[in-house]
Design a protein that fits this description.
The structure is a single chain. This protein is of the alpha/beta class. The protein is built from eight helices and seven strands. Strands 4-3-5-6-7 form a five-stranded mixed sheet. The protein has a two-stranded antiparallel ribbon with strand order 1-2. The longest helix has 17 residues. The termini are far apart. The mean pLDDT is about 90.
Amino acid sequence: METQFSSALLESAVTEISRLPGIGRKTALRLALHLLRRDEREAVALGQSIIDLRKGISYCSVCHNISDTDECAICASPLRDHTTVCVVENVRDVMSFEATGQYRGVYHVLGGLISPVDGVGPDMLQIDSLVERVAAGGITEVILALSATMEGDTTNFYISRRLGQFAGLTLTRLARGMSVGNEIEYTDELTLGRSLMERVPYEQ
């Protein structure tokens, strides 16, 4: 049974905070009460940063990573290897690979995985834009760095069929340092880095 608060404002705050993933009502209440105990400026700064994030954030027009500008810092960097594109499911995976410090290429964020059970088809992902990037030229390797799950394997297979038309393009996948069923964001940096550096040719 949910706790009835004496303050409608507190009730509203707890309800909204508890909508965040992994946050139950007890934790939401603890966070709300913590904010009340802190200086008002801290709560205002937190609220403003969330508003700024929601209104100001955009996505890179090239790779679809989160960015403050039209082109993200990774895509805009002349120090990155733009001939190698690492295909990932979401922006959290970009952060995971960047944390390894071992990859110097660029990325392409799909925004999900093909999952007929969940009603997610190829047309709902950034696959067409990936094909267009490769078709534009200059890319010699595409790394299929998706989670070792059924959805990840299905998406890998679909992308490999779409990119198979491009002569001279090398398709690789992560080495199986990752256990089957593992998701990228929950894999430790050492294993993830090794899987990336020891990638192998993709075979359908």
